[in-house]
Structures are given as C-alpha cells and as structure tokens.
C-alpha cells in the first residue's frame, strides 16, 4: 500500500488508501516543552494528551501543544522553520520522528511512500538537501521505501489530472511558497520563495502589536481577503501582507517563465496550501495575474479542492504510480 | 557500488597496461633494430653502386654483394616498420611469406649469377622477388588500413561508453543518513491527529499520471490540434538542441 507524506512547517499530513476512501491524517508540526512534575503529568494523563518525558522535561506534541500553550502561557516550538528542519531547534529530529511514527504507523510489508521536498528558494540561501535526506532517513527507519518530489509538482499531480498534468501548481505553505510549472507531468520550472504564512503572521504581528499566535488564529478562523478593511485591525495588516506575498509570487513566477520560454499552450493555475485557504485569495491572485501580464496563456485559476491536503494527495498519486510498476 | 567496481576494474586494467607497456617497448626495440639494419644495408648497397660505378661488366662478386645488400635491405626495412606497428592480423603471415620470397630470390641470384643468369632463371628470380615485395608492402598497407578502421570503431565505442556512464547511470553521491534511535515513547492518547476520510479517485489519477509519463495517453483531438501540438513539440526540440 502506497502512502503520501506532506511534511510542512506548520502541519504534517499523511495520506493513504482505505478501500475506496483516501484517509488524510493531519497533525500540527509543533511541540510544547514543560518542566516535569507529577501534577503536570497527571493533568496531561487526564486530558488524554500525547506527550513525551525526556529527563526532567515533558514535551507535548502536535495539536495538543497549541491548546496547552495558552494554559501554561508558554510559546509552542516548531521543529521546522522556513520549510526545512530548524537549525536552531535541537529537538527537531526526535520530535518529528515521534510525530511521523504516530501518524504513519508501521508499514504492511514493503510500502512505498512519497514525501514532499521544498524546491530551491530563489530569494534565500536555504539549502533543502539536508532536510530532504533526513526526512527520507526518518521514514526509512520506520520501514518504508521513500522517494521525494517537489511540493509544487505534488499540487499538479493532485489537481491537474484532467489537464494531463500540464499547468502551474503553487503551494502556499507556512514556511515557503513552492511553485512548479509542468508540461505533461514533466516539471519545466520549479522554485520556492522564502515567504509564506509565517511571514504574513510575523509581519502582521509586528505591525499591530498582537501576539503571533493570535494573529495566526485569526487568519485561520475568520479572515477573509478583501481590500476594504478596518484601519489598524489585524485583518487589515493580514490583507496588506497577503497582497504583498501574492504580488511577490506572481512577479517571480512571471520572471521565471520568461527565462525558460515555455510551450505556447494554456496553463491552468492551482493554488494550494494552508495559506491559500482564506476566502478571496483566488480573486486576489486573479487580479494580480491580470495586472502583471503573463508570458503564457492562463486558462483558469482555481483553488485546490482541499488546499491543506492537496500536496499529500499529490504525493499519494505519485506513490501509487510506483506501486503500479 | 559503482565507484568500487570501477576501482577494481581500473586496478586490473593498470596491471594489464604495465604488461602491455613492457612487451610493447621490447617489440619496438627489436623492430627498430630490424628497420635500422635494413636501412643500413640499403645505404651500403647504394653507396657501393655509386662508389664502384656498377655496370654489367663490373666484377660479378661486387654485383652479387651490392644487389644482395639492396635485395635484403628493402624487405628488412619494411618488416621493421610492420613490426613497430605491431602485427595484428595480416602483416605477420604476409610479412614472413614476402620476406622468405625475397631471401629466396636473393639466394637464387647469388647461386645463378653470373653463369646461369639467363632466361627463364632471371624471370623466375625477378618474379619471386617482386612477389616477395608485393607481399611485404601489401601486408603493411593492409595493416595500416585495418588499424585505422579499428581505431575509429574503438573511439566510437569509448564515446558510447562515456555517454552511457554519463547519462544512463547517474552516480548517486548523496550520503545515506542513518537516524539514531531516541528511545522515546509517546504516552497518552492513541489519537494520532485529525483523521479525514474522503471518497476519491486517486487510483484513476495515478494510472493517468503513469500513462502521461510513458507517453501513452490517448487523447481525442482534431487534426489541427495534432499539428498544433506537433509544432509545439518541434519548437521544444529545437530549443533543447539550441540549449
């Protein structure tokens, strides 16, 4: 049985088949470190929370970390930053390993798994090779046979089957924005931009003085991308930075496409990733594209059916093709 | 794995090269001596002709000596050249036959001259010598042509081999990372995260992706669309060639 795995800065999503159904398992890629005490341990046991005891520390994993961060008034920590393993986080690898173990489980025999890997960023010196190889090794350790594909290509596999996998796939993640242009399933342009949801949260937080976690919570719950916003509000700051990010992505995509002189066919564009979820995102993107003028004809711009699971679904499709062989 | 087998093959190849180098230099030494000896005989013979101003009425012994020197000098020189090239196919047999015919002719000439140096003996000896030279030169010529063809084939083979190594067996130099066990156990709930089940056509999409990758996608389209796509493919091919 094949599986797909999207290891993102904010979420880890695993996809697999269960009969005719696709099962997505989503977990926050975050943890909370607490001092060990019997009282804390008892409280966590009662709350049925996933935690790890290491020395005199307790680590709460995944979604629970976010919930308990407010209870204990401590910030959550993230094993990944800017789309790759965080070099500042010494617990990154053990924590990710534990989360992966929990969401993937052990394989039934020789299972192929496709993992996403960020493309090389064009505006930062981030080098994704170490991250990619570490993820492969972690998954191999669990008994899977891993291989990697670019995040943008996974979006194309997931959403553009009707277009013979020709088009532009953009994954707006938390740490990075990954872009791939593909022609009949073969990538012709693939790059990433070192800006994403985290960059929006951080800048909106700085601009308004509201804590980042709160900004993120507003963004994920009620935010709608529109250009008429209340001055000084979090929504206003979010709209400004969303607009800035979209402009930046569109400009870079246009520049990259000009460099490669792509085939003269109509390219659909698919927007995926958690950052592409707010209402009005697609319209804002369409507007930017129409303003900038593109070197290729764009047939349609659409948001993935399930933006958060699109990459994992694309990985599952890629893994399935290996299974056929 | 590729590099280790390459190293083994390389060291084996080095031993073979060493052996080949020694035998090669020995052969060069031997045949360069033959060549020098042949040239020497030719030069002495030519010197005799000039110095003694040889003619029909000259001393028969002098004529015998001079023409024996030249008669042996020519095939020896050619044999030296053939030997330095290295006998591969033709020149060994033809060389031996040719040289033997030349020696036979010279010896017959020494026996017959001057008393019996008459028709048909002269014709027989001359024919034998001429055949000897034809065999010696012919062998050398065939050798040169054969070598030129083989070297061209070898160059193409090596080129193909290099292309094979470069394009069809990419060397994976990325290290394998092994992960140390952290000996940690997650306590608490069996929950593994948010689980979402959806009915999906992943299998169909995957088979479609396979077909597209293998170029087996069946697309129903009009003739104009086919020619349009052909044009795009041609443009792409041109661009790839240009790049």
Question: What does this protein structure show overall?
Answer:
The complex is a heterodimer of chains A (about 325) and B (about 240). Chain A has helices spanning about 40-45, 65-70, 90-105, 130-140, 150-160, 195-210, 210-220, 235-260, 280-290, 310-325; strands at about 5, 10-20, 20-30, 30-35, 50-55, 55-60, 80, 85, 110-115, 145-150, 165-170, 175-185, 185-195, 265-270, 295-305. Chain A is built from 10 helices and 15 strands. In chain A, strand 1 and strand 2 form a beta hairpin. The model of chain A has no long low-confidence stretch (mean pLDDT about 90). Chain A starts with a strand and ends with a helix. Chain B is built from 6 helices and 1 strand. Chain B is mainly alpha-helical and about 240 residues long. Classes of the chains: A alpha/beta (about 325), B mainly alpha (about 240). Chains A and B meet through strand 2, strand 3, strand 5, helix 3 and helix 4 of A and strand 1, helix 5 and helix 6 of B.
Structural topology:
The complex is a heterodimer of chains A (325) and B (243).
Chain A: E1 3-7, E2 11-18, E3 21-28, E4 31-35, H1 38-46, E5 51-54, E6 57-61, H2 63-72, E7 80-81, E8 84-85, H3 92-104, E9 112-117, H4 129-141, E10 145-150, H5 151-159, E11 167-172, E12 177-183, E13 186-193, H6 197-208, H7 212-221, H8 234-260, E14 266-272, H9 281-292, E15 297-303, H10 310-324
Parallel strand pairs in A: 1-9, 9-10, 11-14, 14-15
Antiparallel strand pairs in A: 1-2, 2-3, 4-6, 5-6, 7-8, 11-12, 12-13
Helix pairs in contact in A: 5-10, 6-7, 6-8, 8-9
Chain B: H1 2-52, H2 60-85, H3 91-112, H4 121-168, E1 194-199, H5 202-213, H6 223-242
**How many strands, what sense, and barrel or not for the largest sheet of chain B?**
none
Principal-axis shape of chain A equals globular
Order of helices and strands of chain B: HHHHEHH
- Radius of gyration of chain A (CA) equals 20 Å
| Structural Rg of chain B | 38 Å
Calculate the terminal CA-CA distance of chain B, rounded to whole Å: 33 Å
Coarse structural class of chain A: alpha/beta
Strand content of chain A: 25-35%
């Amino acid at each position: 049985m094949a599986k797909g795995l999207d290891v993102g800065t904010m979420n880890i999503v695993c996809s697999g088949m269960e009969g005719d159904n696709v099962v997505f398992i989503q977990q926050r890629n975050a943890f909370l470190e607490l001092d060990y005490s019997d009282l804390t341990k008892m409280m966590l046991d009662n709350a049925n929370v996933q935690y790890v005891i290491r020395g005199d520390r307790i680590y709460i994993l995944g979604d629970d970390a976010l919930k308990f961060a407010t209870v204990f008034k401590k910030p959550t920590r993230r094993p990944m930053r800017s789309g790759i393993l965080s070099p500042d986080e010494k617990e990154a690898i053990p924590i990710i390993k534990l989360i992966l173990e929990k969401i993937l489980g052990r394989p039934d025999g020789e299972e192929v798994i496709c993992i996403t890997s960020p493309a090389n960023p064009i505006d930062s010196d981030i080098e994704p090779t170490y991250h990619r190889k570490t993820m492969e090794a972690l998954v191999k350790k669990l008994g899977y046979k891993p291989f990697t594909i670019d995040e943008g290509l996974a979006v194309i596999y997931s959403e553009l089957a009707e277009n013979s996998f020709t088009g532009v796939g953009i994954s707006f993640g938390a740490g990075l924005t990954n872009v791939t242009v593909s022609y009949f399933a073969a990538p012709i342009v693939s790059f990433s931009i070192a800006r994403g949801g985290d960059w929006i949260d951080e800048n909106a937080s700085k601009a308004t003085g509201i804590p980042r976690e709160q900004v993120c919570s507003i963004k994920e719950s009620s935010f709608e991308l529109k250009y008429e916003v209340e001055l000084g509000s979090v929504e206003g700051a979010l709209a400004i930075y969303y607009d800035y990010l979209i402009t930046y992505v569109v400009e870079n995509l246009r520049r990259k496409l000009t460099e490669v002189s792509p085939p003269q066919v109509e390219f659909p564009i698919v927007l995926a990733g958690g950052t592409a979820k707010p209402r009005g995102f697609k319209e804002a993107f369409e507007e930017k594209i129409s303003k900038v003028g593109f070197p290729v004809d764009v047939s349609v711009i659409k948001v993935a059916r399930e933006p958060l699971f699109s990459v994992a679904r694309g990985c599952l499709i890629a893994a399935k093709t290996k299974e056929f062989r | 794995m590729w590099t280790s087998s390459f190293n083994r093959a390389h060291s084996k190849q080095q031993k073979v090269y060493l052996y080949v180098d020694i035998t090669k230099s020995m052969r060069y030494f031997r045949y360069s001596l033959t060549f020098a000896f042949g040239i020497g005989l030719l030069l002495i013979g030519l010197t005799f002709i000039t110095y003694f101003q040889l003619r029909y009425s000259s001393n028969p012994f002098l004529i015998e000596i001079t023409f024996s020197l030249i008669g042996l000098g020519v095939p020896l020189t050619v044999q030296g050249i053939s030997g330095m090239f290295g006998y591969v196919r033709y020149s060994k047999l033809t060389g031996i036959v040719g040289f033997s015919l030349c020696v036979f002719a010279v010896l017959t000439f020494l026996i017959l001259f001057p008393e019996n140096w008459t028709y048909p003996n002269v014709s027989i000896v001359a024919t034998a010598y001429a055949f000897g030279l034809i065999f010696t030169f012919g062998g050398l010529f065939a050798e040169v042509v054969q070598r030129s063809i083989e070297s061209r084939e070898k160059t193409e083979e090596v080129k193909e081999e290099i292309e094979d190594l470069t394009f069809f067996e990419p060397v994976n130099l990325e290290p394998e990372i092994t992960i140390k066990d952290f000996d940690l156990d997650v306590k608490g709930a069996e929950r593994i995260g948010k689980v979402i089940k959806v009915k999906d056509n992943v299998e169909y999409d995957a088979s479609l992706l396979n077909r597209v990758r293998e170029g087996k996608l069946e697309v129903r389209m009009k003739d104009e669309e086919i020619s349009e796509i052909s044009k795009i493919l041609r443009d792409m091919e041109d661009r790839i060639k240009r790049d």
